[in-house]
Design brief:
single chain; 175 residues; alpha+beta; Alpha-Beta Plaits; 2 domains; five-stranded mixed beta sheet; 11 strands; 19% helix; binds zinc ion
């Protein structure tokens, strides 16, 4: 019965906050905005920060505060136009219990079995992949993996080193 109360039906849809309709941007709880909790925040899609990253907030129109990585180029662009919309934010403790999407780009000499080797590595490391974009140019494969990572303990350096050790891999960067 309890969950029925929260169900979005055609009758109450208009009352649903914006983030319900835009499910592609992850809503977050527990982030402190200027030291205050309980403010609606969401993860910015341009830079997909995860706990441990240095973050900055940007007050959006109607969607609460967007959480960006401090070095995000999109944030810098927006901050130049609307400097007063920048707020300081902190992860707080709840984020460590949530799952996040993070993009990693792998550039490699294209070969048979390359994608298989990479997906096998992620599977051994118990990392789920929620997206993969790939293209090949001049015999080089460019692959962007969207990984589902746990907010509490994800070690980019470790996983990137393991990807580097796969035959043919030239470069690994976090997007
Ligand atoms: Zn951003």
């Amino acid at each position: 019965m309890l969950h029925k109360y929260h169900e979005i039906t055609p009758e109450n849809f208009e009352l649903a906050p914006d983030y319900v309709k835009k499910s592609e941007s992850k809503r977050l709880s527990g982030i402190l905005v200027d030291g205050v909790s309980g403010i609606v925040t969401h993860i910015a899609k341009c830079c997909k920060p995860i706990p441990g990253d240095n973050i900055i907030g940007f007050v959006t129109q109607g969607k609460g505060v967007a959480i960006h990585r401090k070095n995000c180029m999109e944030l810098r662009r927006q901050a130049k136009i609307f400097p007063t919309k920048i707020v300081s934010v902190d992860w707080g403790n709840d984020a460590k219990r949530e799952m996040f999407n993070a993009d990693i780009e792998v550039i490699a000499n294209d070969r048979t079995g390359l994608i298989r080797d990479l997906t096998e590595l992620f599977s051994v490391e118990k990392i789920s992949i929620s997206g993969l974009k790939t293209h090949v140019k001049h015999n080089k494969a460019f692959m962007v993996f969207t990984l589902q990572v746990h907010g509490g303990d994800f070690n980019f350096t470790k996983i990137m080193a393991k990807i580097h050790s796969i035959h043919g891999v030239i470069d690994v960067v976090r997007k």
